[in-house]
Structure formats: C-alpha cells, structure tokens
Amino acid sequence: MYLKHLSYKQAADYFARRDIAVIPVGSIENHGPHLCLGTDIIIPEHIAEVLNRELDVLILPGLSYGVADHHHGFVGTLSIGYEGLKMLAGRITEQLYGYGIRRFVFLNGHGGNDQALMDVGLMLEAKGCITAIANWWQLAGQLNPDWAGGHGGGEETAAIMAIDPALVSMEHYLPLSPQPVSDELPVSGVRTVGFGGADFMVARRFKSVTPSGWYGPDDPREASVEWGEQMLGAVTRLIVDFVAALERAPLPEQTGRGNRC
Ligand SMILES: [Zn+2]
Q1: pTM over 0.85
Q2: Is the dihedral of CA 247, 248, 252, 253 positive or negative?
Q3: Distance, CA 168 to ligand 1 centroid (Å)?
Q4: pLDDT score at 256
Q5: Domains with residue ranges and CATH for the chain
C-alpha cells in the first residue's frame, strides 16, 4: 500500500500490524542522450509497484533526487549531494521509526546514493532497526552476467524500454567516447585509469571521462524490450522474496539511540 493513498487512520492500522517500509530512491541525472534523466527513480518505482501488489507492504513516496554531483555538466542533472540525501532519508526514517517501523528497504536505482543510505542504515541499526539497500542493477548482474552494465548502457536502457519505450530516444545515441588522462593513463572504468596492470581512482566528472554521457561494457544499441522484461521480472521476483525474508528476520539489539540524522 502506498502511504500517499492512506488516511492517517489507515496508516495507523498498518503501523499497528507491521514494522516494514519500502522507500524507492533514485536520482535525476544524465544517462546519455538516448535515455531519460529519471531512469534511476523510474526503475525502483516500477519494482515497488510489484512489491505493493505481492506483499501489500508500505511503499513510501520515492526520493527522486540523489547524489549526482559527478554528473554536473550535463543539462538537467539535479543533485542534492551526500548531505542532502542523508538528511532526507534520515529525517523520513526517523519519523517512520516513531510510528513503529523497524525494517527499512531502500529500493535504490543509483550507485552514488550508496554511502548516504548506508550511513542512515547504521544509525538505524543502533536504534534496533535493520536497513537493506536493494541495488537492482547489481542484483541483475549477479543473476545473469550478461545483464551486468555500466551507466546508461544496455542494461539501464533495456529496463526503461520495458517500462516505457517512449522514454528511450535511440536516434540521439552517441558512441562511447572515453577520454584518457594521458597516453599513459587510459580510462579503465568510470572512476579509474589503468596503469601498470592496476586501476587507479581519479576524481573526474562523468563528462570529463565520457562526454557522450554513458559508460559501460553494455552498449545501449544492444538493449531490447525482451532483455528489459526478463531482467526486471527476475530481479523483481528476487527482491519480493528478499523483502519477505527481511520481514521474518530477527531485529538487531539496540545499542544506542542513534545520532540524529
Ligand atoms: Zn542510472
């Protein structure tokens, strides 16, 4: 059930019966010229719809904004930064805690959000709560290595194609354009350069690494509705079963009050 659809009476009934809540979290950021800025929140909200149907679990309004400072330079990107997301997720979970929620699931669509969500979860653990972060794209790559992707590549493009093909504009596709730091320091990953057979992290904006705005082994041109449907179906099934297991799990012992988020 969606919190935004409940009256306070219905919400109180839920909090009296169950102690779990699901919060979709995403980002508004560049995903290349072929893919929509809201990719990272649209996919978790799609998965949340199935959780709602299958588990009748409480779904919070999605947090559309996340940590995307590294995508500045691409028009339309809107980041609230680490502090912003930690404050937002912290304040919301703190109030849910007050209503009796002890199990939190962040359905996350963006890797840049990980640290802020983990830090909120650690504070909740001190208060006797358990917090899980379900990163759908990592789960997809673990279920099937063919589904593993980068950023704005075939994996994310296929997922959005399956949800709403109108949000993909392949006519604007640009080829991958990795920019080495120097002849000796080629791009080896979205945050790394290769040197001496190893990867060194270099802090560069996404636009400096790949001006086309996407990165990965998975070319967006490989994406298809079939890929997206199969992948989202399998990942969503896994997350449904995981959330059910989390609801059965024992809660950690309370070790403190948890610092205010
Ligand atoms: Zn994304």
Answers
A1: yes
A2: positive
A3: 13
A4: 78
A5: 3-165+216-248 (3.40.50.10310), 177-211 (no CATH)
